[in-house]
Design brief:
CATH class: Mainly Alpha
Number of strands: 0
CATH architecture: Orthogonal Bundle
Largest sheet: none
Number of helices: 5
Order of helices and strands: HHHHH
Shape: globular
CATH superfamily: lambda repressor-like DNA-binding domains
Length: 77
């Protein structure tokens, strides 16, 4: 995958996390606390400036009351 494509994926993931958090009615601080993630790291997740591990994404999904697949989307064929 070319570097720009990775950036595009991270930005799309960030948008999905932000949208799911807002749909859950949570602030960034509350969502970070629920996921046991540092608030500044949560901010970077929503900015698309970090490449989270699968473990982090599962914690994020749990904190937002959704599942991992909702955040990462379906695989395009």
């Amino acid at each position: 995958m070319r570097p720009k494509a990775v950036r595009d994926v991270l930005l799309e993931l960030a948008r999905r996390i932000r949208d799911a958090r807002r749909a859950a009615g949570l602030t960034q601080e509350a969502a970070a606390s629920r996921a046991n993630i540092d608030y500044k790291r949560w901010q970077r997740l929503e900015e698309g400036t970090v490449n989270p591990t699968v473990q982090t994404l599962v914690r994020v999904a749990d904190a937002l009351g959704t599942d991992l697949w909702h955040l990462v989307g379906e695989r395009k064929r």
